[in-house]
Amino acid sequence: MKKKICVLLIIFAFVTVGAFLLSACNNYSYEPVEDFFNISLTFAGSGSTSRAFSFMTNGTDYENKCAVQLDPAGEKDAEPKFGSKDNILLETATRQHTHIKTYYVHSAYTTELTPGTKYFYRVGCPEEDKWSPWGVFTTDDGDDSFSFLFVTDMQSDGDKYYQILSENIRKAISESPQAEFVLSTGDQIEYGFLQGDWDKFFRYIQDVILNNTFAVVNGNHEISTYLMEANFYLPLELERYCYAFEYGNCLFMVLDNNGDMPEQLEWMEGVMAASSAKWRIIGMHMSPYSPGNHADQLASLEVKRLVTPFAARHSVDLVLSGHDHIYSRTCPIDENGTRAQSEDIVITEMDGYTATTHVKPGGPIYISNRTIGTKFYNKSNSLYDHLIDKGDPGKIQIPIFSVINIEGNKLTFTAYEYHRDTTKDIKIYDYFEIIK
Ligand SMILES: [Fe+2]
Hints:
Elements: H1 2-27, E1 37-42, E2 51-58, E3 67-73, E4 88-91, E5 93-96, E6 103-110, E7 118-125, E8 130-131, E9 135-138, E10 145-151, H2 159-175, E11 179-184, H3 195-210, E12 214-216, H4 225-231, E13 243-247, E14 250-254, H5 261-273, E15 279-283, H6 298-313, E16 318-321, E17 328-330, E18 342-349, E19 354-361, E20 365-368, E21 388-391, E22 400-407, E23 410-418, E24 426-435
Parallel strand pairs: 10-11, 11-12, 14-15, 15-16, 16-20, 19-24
Antiparallel strand pairs: 1-2, 2-6, 3-4, 3-7, 5-6, 7-8, 7-9, 10-22, 13-14, 17-20, 17-21, 18-19, 22-23, 23-24
The structure holds fe (ii) ion.
Fe (ii) ion is lined by residues 187, 219-221, 285, 323.
């Protein structure tokens, strides 16, 4: 009897999972209409001299014939001059997509750009003079002042939610014109194992990605690292989606929580030894100290066990994450996972929020950003309440984006809520400063 029940349960589980996968696959199958699609722009080292490009084609027409064309522009040039003699042509490496056999993935990178320079670019086939729409980016000028946008968990389940995400991310970008790039801490995609879902993501926000460098983090929904690399190419040194880049006076270290963390942390030690950047920021998917429903799971506890001493000992300033879809900001945390002292703390009541300034904090501050998308979670543990200086009291269904500004010895962090369902305004939800 017991055996029969077990067999029935196994069949039921297979049928349920099978039906789910089939419906997801059907929902996300896609016939591309553009010649060149899923065009992405990310870092391949220093923000002042590098960029990595990736895009796809369907069918054999453009196999081994593609390139990225860059046009270095003057600050005042509003339109590109493709074809002029200072253009740069990067030949792409081409590989067949492992999941969709008719797709070809084209990628290229350069580490030889000029700092502080605006570049127009497009991707395509020079031989046939067929090209994508053009995008634009500006390389870091290398001084000690810059801003970036921090978003997380864009994952959207279907057109309705992609439409909302598209509006939210456009709002975040238009409200932070000073931001020079976007850090997205994982779960860009709901069904990361389906290329069709990646296709849909790009269809909704391709122009945003074309015109903004995205430093992306691998989330648990992107556990298939192959699809992550196929859509956001990086010349990776480790097998995981783990990399580092310098921007201004800051070293960014991106960790892949799906992979071997000790190996990545060891690699990062070498990266830090070779860097003289004043600020250090870790971007990863899991939030070790969040009040959300993942913080007491084994994987998050392991990340917390490894990252806490690493980040404190190596004078990391901020650890930026998502995964729990709920906002929290910790106090500075020492290598034992307890409250670290700051040399001074100044708290100022502002109109609707509290501004906190930490002078020379004794450890990194950990942020779990609420999503910029549409999935919001409840508060479900009080494990780290004693370490959280600002946190959502429960499920708040208002998307958040954060803008970080670094200027010399001062870092400012502002989390904005986008009240899309009511006033359509943005409002400061949290603000703090670190002075070194
Ligand atoms: Fe996640």
